[in-house]
Amino acid sequence: MLTYNVLIAVAFLYVAFLFGIAFYAERRARAGRSGWVRSPWIYTLSLSIYCTAWTFYGAVGYAARSGLEYLTVYLGPTIIMIGWWWIVRKLVRIGRSQRITSIADLISSRFGKSTSLGVIVTLIAVVAATPYLALQLQSVTLSFAVFAEAGGTHWTQVDLSRAALWVAIGLVVFTIVFGTRNLDANERHHGVVIAIAVEAVVKLCALVAVGVFVVWGIAGGLGETLQMIDASPISKWQQPAGRWVGLTFLAGAAFLCLPRMFQVLVVENVNEDHLSTASWAFPLYVMLMSLFVVPIAVVGLNLMPSGSNPDLFVLTLPLSEGWNVLAIFSFLGGFSSATSMVIVATIALATMVSNHIVVPIWLSSRGAGAVVAGDIRLVVLLSRRISIAAVVLSGYIYFRLSGGGAALAAIGLISFVGVVQVLPSLVGGLYWRGATRWGAFAGLIVGFAVWAWCLFLPSFGQGAIIPVSVFEHGPFGIGWLRPEALFAIEGIDPLLHALLWSMLLNAIAFFVGSVATFPAPLERLQGAQFVNVFEHSSGAKAWTQSAAEAEDLLIMSQRILGPTEAQQIFAQEAAAQGKAGYLPDVTPAFIQGLERDLAGSVGAATAHAMIGQFTQGSSISVEDLIAVADEAAQIMEYSNRLEAKSAEQDRTARQLRDANEKLTALSIQKDAFLSQISHELRTPMTSIRAFSEILRDGDADTATVERYSGIIHDEALRLTRLLDDLLDLSVLENGQVNLNIQEGSLKTLLDRALSATDASGRRLIIRRNAANENYLLNTDLDRLTQVFINLITNADKYCDAEAPELKISMRRIGGRQVVDFIDNGSGIGKESQRVIFEKFSRLSDHRKAGGAGLGLAICREIMARLGGDIVYLPGQGGAAFRVTLP
Amino acid sequence: MAQKIRPPQFLARSSYRQRRLRDVAGMLPIFGILLLQVPILWPREEGQSLTSNAMIYVFAIWILLICLALFLSKAIRKDVPEVGEGQEEAN
Q1: Which residues are A481's β-sheet partners?
Q2: Any CB–CB contact under 8 A between B48 and chain A?
Q3: Is-above-0.90 flag for pTM?
Q4: What is the interface pTM, i.e. ipTM, of the complex?
Q5: Looking at the complex, does the CB of residue B34 fall below 8 Å from at least one CB of chain A?
Q6: CA-CA distance, A425 to A112, in Å (whole number)?
Q7: What is the DSSP letter of A517?
Q8: I need a surface site. Which of A59, A103, A837, B17 has the fewest CB within 10 A?
Q9: What is the pLDDT of residues A683-729, one digit of tens each?
Q10: CB contact under 8 A, B65 and A241
C-alpha cells in the first residue's frame, strides 16, 4: 500500500511539474524569449507523441504475441521521416503557406475550402480516435491497478472507471488551460509543446532504463539475452509476409494522417529546417524505443507467472523484482505517453470539431447577422473548450462501454486503418491537380464505409453490433458482402483484408470521382497552389472584389484575432501602403493575407466564408470569373470602338483632303476664270469700243457701218448671254426659281433640244433610239430642255473626234429613268471630273468655249431643283453624262 | 515575351555534389523500404530460430539509415536553390 500512496504522490508531483514547466514556457514565450522552444530538438521530441501508451506498454505485449511484427509500427514512420524530401517537406510548406490548422483543414482547403469535406474528415478522425483515446485511459488506469495490486488491493471495474474519470478530468483541465490559451493555432502552444518534449524524454528514459535493467540486471548481459530470445516462444515467430508489408505501409500512412501527428508535424512546426534534424533524430528515437521491447517481452514471459498480461511487463517486471523506484519511473513513462498523446490528439480533434462543425453551424444559425453580432473570438474559444471536453468524454464513454477488454495493439491498428482513409485524398491533393472535391468525397465515404463494415464494427465482437449470421452469410444473405470476406475472398487476415479493400476502393473511388467531375474555380486555384507550392510559396493570389470596407473588416478581425493583434495587422498594412492610421486600402492582396490570418484561428473554410460576407460572395466565384471575362470583353469592345473611330477619322481626313484638293483646284480654276472672264468681258468690250469709236468719227461708208454695227451687236449679245448665265445660276443657287410644271414626253424634249442646237450650226452627229423615248415626264420641261441643250452644246463644242458623234440612250436603273449622253471624244481627265460641275470651271481649251464655264453648274442646279441628278459617267470611251430624270 | 533564362546545363563541382546528395536523400527511403522487407523472405523452417538474427539485421539496417540521414542533414546545404525536375534531368 505504501508503494501505491507513493505512486499517487509522485504522479501528482509529476503533473504539477508539467503544469509548472508549461506555465514557465508560456511566460518565456510571452516575454519574447521563446528561442529555445523553437529548436529542432524540441520539434523532434514533440513528434514522439507518435509513441503512445500503446508503444510503451502495448509493444511488449505485441512482441510477446507476434514476435518482431511490432517493429513495422516504427519502421513505417522511419521511412517517412528519412524520406522527408518526398512528402513531409511539401506538407509542411503547404501547411505554413496556407496557414493550415488541421488535417481536415488541409483537405477542405485543397478542395476549394469545402466545409462539407472538412466535416467528413473531422468525423472520420473523431470516430477513429475515440477508441484510441479510450486505450490511453485504459493503459493509465491499468498501470494504477498494477500498483494497487502490488499493495494488496484488488481493483474492481468500478475502481478502474473512477480512476479513468479522474485522469480524464485532469487531462481536460490541462488541455483547456494550455491548449486554448491562444486562438491562432499557428501561434503554437509553447506550454503544451514543452510539456510534451519533457514527457518524451521521460518515456524514452523510462523504457531504456527498464530495458537496461532487464538485459543487464536480470538476463545477465547481451549474449545471454539473445540466447534467451532464441529459446523463448517468440523464436517460433512466423512472420506473415502480407502483414509485414501491409503494417509498414499502414504505420507510415498513419504517421501522415493521424490528426495529432499532423498537429505536431505540420501545425506546430516553426521552421522547415527542423525537418532536416528530425529526419534522423526521430528514427533514432523510435529505434531506441523499440530496442528493448523484445528482451523485456522474452524475460517477462520467462519470469512472470503464465496468464499475466504481457502488456504490463514494463511495470510488473521491476515490481516483481522489488525495484519500486524503477517501477515508478516506468509508470511515469507510461503516464507520459498516454497523457501527451491525449493532450495533442484532443487539441487537434477539438480544433477540427470547432472549426469545421461548431463554428460553421453557429455562423449559419446566425445567418447574415453574424457580421455584427457577438464576439466570435469567445465563441470559437468556447466551442474549442467544449470540444476538448467532449472528445475526452467520448473516449471515456468508449472505455466504459468496451470494458477495456481488447488487447491494446488491436485497438491501435483498427484506429490506424480508419485514419489512413484520408491518405488518397491527401496524397492525390498534393501531387495531382486533377483531384476534385467529388473525388475526395467519394474516396473518403467509400473508404470509411468499408473500414466501418469490415473492421470497426466487427471489432466489437461477432454478434455485438453485426449479428453472427451476417458474418457467416452476409447481409440479407448476400455472401460476397460478408464483413471479413468481401467479394467472397476468404482467408485473408481481417486487418489486412480491411486495409486492402478500404484503401483500394477508396483510391479507385477518389480517382474515378476526380476524373469524372469538373473542379470549381476556387478548387482549381487551390489545387495549383498546393501541387506547385514550391514554385510559388510566396502565397496565393486569388482575385478578390475589393468591395469590403476596411472598417468592417477590422471590426470582424478584432472579434476573431483580438483587438491588439487585429489592429496591429491593419496598422502594418496601412503603413506598408504609406498611410497613417488603422485603415489601409482594401486590396485583394490584403484580403488574401487577412483571410489567411483568420484561417489560422478558425480554419480556412470558415475564414473564407466570413471574408466572403464582406467581399459580397466568395472571392472566386463563377460570377467573378464571368465579370473578369466581361471586363476583358469590354476592353476589347472599347478598343474595337477606338479602332472604328480612328477608321472614321481616317475617312474624315480623307474627305477633308479631297475637299481641300477640290478647293485648291477650284481656287486655281477661279483665278483662271477671273482672268478668263475679264478677258471674255474685255474682248467684246474692246471690239465694241473700237468699232463704236470708228462709227463716232463718221468717216466710214454705209456697208462698213452696217458691218461694224453688226459686230457691236453680236458682242453685246455675247455679253448679255454671259451675264444672263451668271444671273440664272445665282437665281438657281439661291432657290428663288419658280418651276413651271408641265407634262410632256421625253422624245419631244429631245427633239426640241436638238432643233435648238441645230439652229446654231451643229456639226455633231446624233445617234438616238427613238423607240425608247416614249417616256412621260411631269416636270419643268423648259428647264430640262435647257439641260439637254447644254449637254448637246458641250459635246458639240468639246468633242475632239474627227467625226464627232453623240449617242443619246435611255435605260432604267434602280427604278429611275436615266438618259445617257455619250460622245466619242477623248473624254474628261480624271482630275477634271471632280470639278466640272463647279461654277467657273472650264477645262483648259477655253478658246473654243462659247460660254464662261457655267453651263454644267447650271445643269446640276436645275437637276437638283427638279429632283433628279446629273453625274459624269466615267469609262464610256468619251465624255459621258448621265441624267437621272425626276 | 521575355526569353526564359535557361539554367546552366553543367554545374560547378560543389553544386553538382549538392544535387547528387539530394538524389541520395530521395533514394534513401526507397532502398530503406526494400532492405527492411528482406526478413519476410527468410526461410521459415520448423525448429530453426531466426528471431535474434532478424532482430540484429533489422536494427543494423535501421541504424545505417539513421546514420545516412544524419550525414545528409549535415551535408545538404539549404542555400542551394531548388531545381525543378526537368532541369535536374537535363544534366
Answers
A1: A486
A2: no
A3: no
A4: 0.82
A5: no
A6: 13
A7: S
A8: B17
A9: 778 888 888 888 888 777 788 888 888 888 888 887 887 788 778 87
A10: no
